Amino acid sequence: MGNFEGAESFTISLRELKVLANIGVGEGERLEKQPVTIDIELELADVPNSDEIHESCDYGAVAAFVVSEVSARSYKLLETMAMDLGRKILRDEKVASIRVSVTKVRPPVPVLLRSAGATYVARREI
Protein backbone atom coordinates (compact mmCIF):
# COMPACT_ATOMS: atom_id res chain seq x y z
CA MET A 1 0.00 0.00 0.00
CA GLY A 2 3.01 2.23 -0.23
CA ASN A 3 6.62 2.40 0.81
CA PHE A 4 7.25 3.43 4.38
CA GLU A 5 10.30 2.85 6.51
CA GLY A 6 9.57 2.59 10.21
CA ALA A 7 7.33 0.89 12.73
CA GLU A 8 3.71 0.47 11.69
CA SER A 9 0.77 -1.42 13.10
CA PHE A 10 -2.97 -1.71 12.67
CA THR A 11 -5.55 -2.24 15.36
CA ILE A 12 -8.99 -3.42 14.30
CA SER A 13 -11.83 -2.58 16.68
CA LEU A 14 -15.22 -4.18 17.11
CA ARG A 15 -17.37 -2.11 19.43
CA GLU A 16 -20.57 -2.93 21.28
CA LEU A 17 -21.31 -6.33 19.81
CA LYS A 18 -24.60 -7.27 21.52
CA VAL A 19 -25.07 -10.94 22.39
CA LEU A 20 -27.48 -12.88 24.57
CA ALA A 21 -25.44 -15.19 26.79
CA ASN A 22 -25.91 -17.86 29.42
CA ILE A 23 -23.76 -16.25 32.08
CA GLY A 24 -23.83 -16.02 35.85
CA VAL A 25 -22.39 -17.52 38.99
CA GLY A 26 -25.68 -18.93 40.22
CA GLU A 27 -27.46 -21.70 38.34
CA GLY A 28 -30.68 -19.71 38.41
CA GLU A 29 -28.95 -16.76 36.78
CA ARG A 30 -28.01 -18.93 33.81
CA LEU A 31 -31.57 -20.17 33.21
CA GLU A 32 -32.33 -17.24 30.92
CA LYS A 33 -29.92 -15.61 28.53
CA GLN A 34 -28.74 -12.16 29.54
CA PRO A 35 -27.50 -9.31 27.35
CA VAL A 36 -23.76 -8.77 27.22
CA THR A 37 -21.78 -6.29 25.20
CA ILE A 38 -18.43 -7.33 23.76
CA ASP A 39 -15.66 -4.99 22.61
CA ILE A 40 -12.62 -6.38 20.81
CA GLU A 41 -9.37 -4.77 19.74
CA LEU A 42 -6.95 -6.88 17.78
CA GLU A 43 -3.56 -5.78 16.56
CA LEU A 44 -2.53 -7.26 13.24
CA ALA A 45 0.72 -9.22 13.09
CA ASP A 46 1.61 -7.53 9.79
CA VAL A 47 0.59 -4.35 8.02
CA PRO A 48 -1.49 -5.21 4.93
CA ASN A 49 0.37 -4.76 1.64
CA SER A 50 -2.79 -4.39 -0.44
CA ASP A 51 -6.41 -3.35 -0.25
CA GLU A 52 -7.56 -6.98 -0.09
CA ILE A 53 -9.33 -8.62 2.87
CA HIS A 54 -7.03 -11.65 2.85
CA GLU A 55 -4.22 -9.28 3.91
CA SER A 56 -6.15 -8.22 7.00
CA CYS A 57 -8.50 -9.76 9.56
CA ASP A 58 -12.17 -9.97 8.55
CA TYR A 59 -13.98 -8.27 11.43
CA GLY A 60 -17.33 -9.57 10.17
CA ALA A 61 -16.03 -13.12 10.48
CA VAL A 62 -14.65 -12.35 13.97
CA ALA A 63 -18.03 -10.95 15.07
CA ALA A 64 -19.88 -14.00 13.70
CA PHE A 65 -17.38 -16.30 15.46
CA VAL A 66 -17.91 -14.50 18.78
CA VAL A 67 -21.70 -14.76 18.53
CA SER A 68 -21.43 -18.46 17.68
CA GLU A 69 -19.03 -19.17 20.57
CA VAL A 70 -21.02 -17.26 23.17
CA SER A 71 -24.28 -18.84 22.03
CA ALA A 72 -22.84 -22.36 22.20
CA ARG A 73 -21.91 -22.51 25.87
CA SER A 74 -22.61 -21.33 29.38
CA TYR A 75 -20.19 -19.24 31.45
CA LYS A 76 -20.11 -18.49 35.16
CA LEU A 77 -17.67 -15.56 34.96
CA LEU A 78 -17.22 -12.61 32.64
CA GLU A 79 -13.48 -13.19 33.00
CA THR A 80 -13.79 -16.73 31.62
CA MET A 81 -15.84 -15.57 28.64
CA ALA A 82 -13.38 -12.80 27.79
CA MET A 83 -10.36 -15.11 28.14
CA ASP A 84 -11.97 -17.93 26.14
CA LEU A 85 -12.82 -15.59 23.26
CA GLY A 86 -9.44 -13.84 23.37
CA ARG A 87 -7.43 -17.05 23.30
CA LYS A 88 -9.44 -18.47 20.42
CA ILE A 89 -9.19 -15.30 18.33
CA LEU A 90 -5.45 -15.11 19.03
CA ARG A 91 -5.01 -18.50 17.33
CA ASP A 92 -5.37 -16.65 14.01
CA GLU A 93 -1.79 -16.00 12.87
CA LYS A 94 -2.83 -12.61 11.49
CA VAL A 95 -3.51 -11.44 15.05
CA ALA A 96 -0.53 -10.31 17.16
CA SER A 97 -2.43 -9.16 20.25
CA ILE A 98 -5.97 -9.06 21.55
CA ARG A 99 -8.07 -7.14 24.04
CA VAL A 100 -11.55 -8.48 24.77
CA SER A 101 -13.93 -6.67 27.10
CA VAL A 102 -17.19 -8.30 28.15
CA THR A 103 -19.83 -6.21 29.89
CA LYS A 104 -22.93 -7.62 31.54
CA VAL A 105 -25.80 -5.19 31.21
CA ARG A 106 -27.96 -4.90 34.33
CA PRO A 107 -26.17 -7.48 36.50
CA PRO A 108 -28.41 -9.01 39.17
CA VAL A 109 -26.86 -7.49 42.28
CA PRO A 110 -28.59 -5.92 45.30
CA VAL A 111 -27.48 -2.37 44.38
CA LEU A 112 -28.11 -0.09 41.41
CA LEU A 113 -25.39 -1.07 38.96
CA ARG A 114 -25.74 -0.29 35.26
CA SER A 115 -23.11 -2.79 34.14
CA ALA A 116 -20.15 -4.91 35.21
CA GLY A 117 -17.28 -6.01 33.01
CA ALA A 118 -14.00 -7.83 32.62
CA THR A 119 -11.18 -7.33 30.13
CA TYR A 120 -8.68 -9.91 28.87
CA VAL A 121 -5.44 -8.79 27.21
CA ALA A 122 -2.88 -11.07 25.54
CA ARG A 123 -0.02 -10.91 23.05
CA ARG A 124 1.28 -13.72 20.89
CA GLU A 125 4.79 -14.91 21.73
CA ILE A 126 7.15 -14.25 18.84
TrEMBL record:
GO terms for molecular function: dihydroneopterin aldolase activity. SUPFAM superfamilies: Tetrahydrobiopterin biosynthesis enzymes-like. GO terms for cellular component: cytoplasm. Keywords: Folate biosynthesis, Lyase. Its EC number is 4.1.2.25. SMART domains: FolB. NCBIfam families: folB_dom. This is dihydroneopterin aldolase. It comes from Ferrithrix thermotolerans DSM 19514.
